[in-house]
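User: We ran a pulldown and think these components assemble together. Before we commit to crystallization trials, I'd like a predicted model of the whole complex to look at. Sequences follow.
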Amino acid sequence: MPHSLSFIDAFHPIFYPRTLAVIGASADPTKFGNIILSAIQEIGFGGKIYPVNPDGGEIKGLKVFRSLAEIPGPVDFAVITIPASVLLSTLEECRQKGVKGVEILTSGFKETGTAEGRQLEGEISRFALGGMRVLGPNCFGIYCPESGLTILPGQNFSRETGPVGFLSQSGGLCADLGQIAKGLGIRFSKMVSYGNGCDVAACDLLEFFFADPKTGVIAGYVEGIDDGPRFLRLLRENRGKKPVILWKAGLTATGGRAVQSHTGSLGGSAAVWEGAFRQAGVIQVYSAEELIDAIYAFLYLPGGAGPRVAVMGGGGAISVAASDSLERLGLSVPYFSPAVLQKLKASFPPVGNSLRNPVDLGNPMIPPSMLRRVMEAAGEDGGIDTLIVIQILFYILYQVRHRVGMADQPLSRFSFQPELLKACQEIKARYGKPIILALPDITTDGQMIDLEIELRKERDIYQAAGFPVFSSLDRAARALSHVVRFRGMVS
Amino acid sequence: MPHSLSFIDAFHPIFYPRTLAVIGASADPTKFGNIILSAIQEIGFGGKIYPVNPDGGEIKGLKVFRSLAEIPGPVDFAVITIPASVLLSTLEECRQKGVKGVEILTSGFKETGTAEGRQLEGEISRFALGGMRVLGPNCFGIYCPESGLTILPGQNFSRETGPVGFLSQSGGLCADLGQIAKGLGIRFSKMVSYGNGCDVAACDLLEFFFADPKTGVIAGYVEGIDDGPRFLRLLRENRGKKPVILWKAGLTATGGRAVQSHTGSLGGSAAVWEGAFRQAGVIQVYSAEELIDAIYAFLYLPGGAGPRVAVMGGGGAISVAASDSLERLGLSVPYFSPAVLQKLKASFPPVGNSLRNPVDLGNPMIPPSMLRRVMEAAGEDGGIDTLIVIQILFYILYQVRHRVGMADQPLSRFSFQPELLKACQEIKARYGKPIILALPDITTDGQMIDLEIELRKERDIYQAAGFPVFSSLDRAARALSHVVRFRGMVS
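Assistant: Here's a predicted model for the assembly, 982 residues in total across the polymer chains.
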């Protein structure tokens, strides 16, 4: 069933409201009603904000309205942070005011496990039948960089828009992801924390993201699904179109129990979900880290990333570990072709190197000019799809600086990054194969913070040039394997 | 078969040499012969160092001997970095000088896969038959903080001694581990990079570490085993005594191939090794990260850590994720007993919290005074063995500082650490249950480096007080599961 135009249209005032009421706005900086108001103000929301509180007055330079009815003109969207006990009358006021959508941050409903909580939540969802879309309760709201709407606490999320649509029953995960995303250059079209999901939930959001032209990659954290058959039908219809990365939590007995007291959902069996997801072409992940890495890989490896990988770096265990972990993930590290290997051998000393792939150049301080020859070989070789280059900055920067007795000089002076980036760009341009960098951090010593500073700087430069950077080879390989498996599905 | 005294005694001049020759010492800072000499000098080796090079002269303030024979008095141990072609004559000189042991850093032997390389390596190992122990070739040597001997490049390894005995076919992994260990407070009795292992290899080192009173926890990275039946017999004899953590690499087809060109070993089948390790009570790990986390857990959780875990923190997905990942690892997150839960409920508001375990206190900025009540409940509850406390410093420090409008103040001003540490200490003292901290880093933004600085500072303080700190709940749980499985074997 294709979505109706009105279904998609109904989301417009929610993601792009021109006027916004914060019901339960507060001057107390520990209250949700203050935190969410501040966040929306600070991120620079483009529309008009109306704080609402029966006490009136002024908060953060904005006039406070004593009731919704007092607000002049229409209100598109309302953020609600008032106690559960007065929620129904407030929703009735919203209905009368003609509000198009609300997000309810308040908790104390289905997730309490009480009959009272369940009943109250049922009554909330009835308001949705009248056409007003309801997000939550027990959620952190919506982040939409294009309009400047943000979640709790998302005041410092990026204002750049991007292709990722994210849906989550956990508000905490949204808050974490928005933060982590910043440094990784992951940008969102919309992020929706929908909590208990009494009206808008996984199915509607999936359907919206499939239709939304601004969303190219969909990711989500789900605990329970509002309508399993519809959910799977939607996913199957999308098969081979937009990538969908899902973390389905609560798949163990204990996890299922925790889900119930978190958002009042039902977890479901692992085998059933895994089978259904496989059929529907969903990329299933099992942790926040894996979720983030997969999103990142889909953004930075838009095409061409294949399963036959050349791994290159210095330090032997790296190459053995690479081989083991890539093979476990369904990728391969094939030998270079005899002709390519012959050429490579001619330009390296015969000892201390393993050139057949994985390529172990013996030590981590290999100058980019030498690494470039290996990259060229991997580019030329018809049996290789993807390159992974490992650089352990501790050795390249700290050890080299120490050896040449220049401990007073900044680490960046010893960096291979400018030359290596150039090599990456030329090889990628010439052979069209994606290049992934692994920059493992092998010290978390409090005294060596300058290495972490340099590492982030180099990562940002590679990223800005379109090369993904992972903090370990294992994470790079796992993320690549998700992209490869997805591409295999697209004919 | 118990080890003979002479077998163990033969290692003494290797780990604690009074006199040390560096054969192939060089003034060129890019050569191994310079790097290893500098490293041993800089770490502060306690014995006498004799550089040897036919050119003579002086390097780093030390007189260079033109040959081993020129050195006055006996030489206990020799570090050899000369080309493969002149190795045999040098070993003969060592034999004549009465050197007790040598480490050969040179590569170009069995790992080349050539008949010539294999033959040369066979001839090296014949010198060992005469009583001189040979480490390597193709290795990075020995690190022994007690004597001040160190590997290549280990000039800044810790001089503190500790209980971990580490054996590795990868020198690169030794170099990484020594570095990572510093910040984590992991200290070694001895670390041995044995490369191709033509004489001293996994079996001898295992037997030595079992007998060594200074070694309490044994860990290792092995590619091939010199004598499989002896190796497994040694492990079985140790069952229930010292924990042995092993990363057996090369268990996949590609990994096995990489092993061959790395140290010339044979990988072997995954199923066979996994079965044998299980029988022998070995803690098997599959990556450097898992290896390090397991060593760390054995050091910081010396007793009492059991499988029934109370997990506490703020943010809902944390609790669901905790439940899923702990159960997958064979741990459990049982409900608190009704009496304990009753007491707990009385001191928390009824809404926004999930108190049954995992305990989700609704938001990450929970003051330690509240968290302490949950810790007390977990301490009191007879059904709980181990506590995991999650603290997301980004929210506790950055968000709180932002809310109170004090962006110019240092992050540490907002820290819960002093109060939380006190709570950890009191609860641990009162109930005797281990407490693990998870301090996830949810930003790697270049601009927010002060958070990383504060994180390392807090980690160091918890660690110094004996509380292990992991960077994620998943890593904490995996490491705990290794300790729990091992303790289950000890009656």
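Chain A is about 45% helix and 15% strand. That may be worth checking against your pulldown data before setting up trials.

User: Thanks, that helps.
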